[in-house]
Amino acid sequence: MLNRRINLQREINNGNRVRSEAGDLRDVRTDLRSYHGTLQSQWKAKEMTHINNAINNLLESLSSAATELDSIGDDVIAAAHEVRRAEELAIAKAELARAEAEHNRTRQLHENAQRLYNATPSPLLEMALNQARGKLSIAADAHATALERVRALS
Predict the structure, then answer these.
(1) How far apart are CA 18 and CA 66, in angstroms?
(2) Most distant CA atoms of the chain, gap in Å
(3) Cβ–Cβ under 8 Å, residues 22 and 67
(4) 49-58, pLDDT tens digit by residue?
(5) How would DSSP label each residue in 98-149?
(6) What residues contact 88, with CB distance under 8 A and at least 6 apart?
(7) Residue 2 pLDDT more than 70?
(8) Do 129 and 113 touch, CB atoms closer than 8 A?
(9) Cα within 13 Å of Cα(96), Cβ side
């Protein structure tokens, strides 16, 4: 069994925090665009062409960075879910291995009880055989349930 599992909620919060930062960049972009408009209407010098180009490049960079942060935030969340699914599958496979070992052990117990009973039938051996059947049935059910879980997670 895994000792340490991913804290899914914490990773979702981290992804959302990155996406929030993208929103903050968009707010900065909006404010810069507003200041840019004010600057253009108030300042009519010939160097405004260079200033406009620089501001437009900065606006484009802010937009690209925000888009990239959104993508990173989405990737963090998707990766967290993928890790959780992998952890659950590993746990299910470990449970399946345990259930399979128990099923094999109880099958062997049942076979031994059946051989003993066939060789020398007695009420005591019949009771042991019935107990072995019951344990085998429980182990078979646990194995089937574990196998079904692994298949569902795969």
Answers:
(1) 9
(2) 112
(3) yes
(4) 999 999 999 9
(5) HHHHHHHHHHHHHHHHHHHHHHS--HHHHHHHHHHHHHHHHHHHHHHHHHHH
(6) 153
(7) no
(8) yes
(9) 16
- Among residues 36, 83, 85, the alpha carbon closest in space to that of 57 is found at 36
The C-alpha atoms of residue 61 and residue 54 are separated, in whole angstroms, by 10
What CA–CA distances, in Å, run from 22 to 9, 32, 81, 98, 103?
A: 20, 15, 21, 47, 53
Query: Per-residue pLDDT for 45 more than 80?
Result: yes
Closest by CA to 132, choosing from 152, 105, 109, 149, is: 109
Q: What is the pLDDT of residues 95-135, one digit of tens each?
A: 999 999 999 999 999 999 999 999 999 999 999 999 999 99
Tokens at residue 123, please? 């009420």
| Segment holding 67, helix H or strand E | helix 48-119
Instruction: Please tell me the distance from the alpha carbon of residue 57 to that of residue 149, in angstroms, as a whole number.
Output: 53
Helices and strands: H and E segment counts in the chain: 3, 0
pTM of the predicted protein model? 0.75
Residue 5 per-residue DSSP state = -
Identity at 46, one-letter amino acid code: K
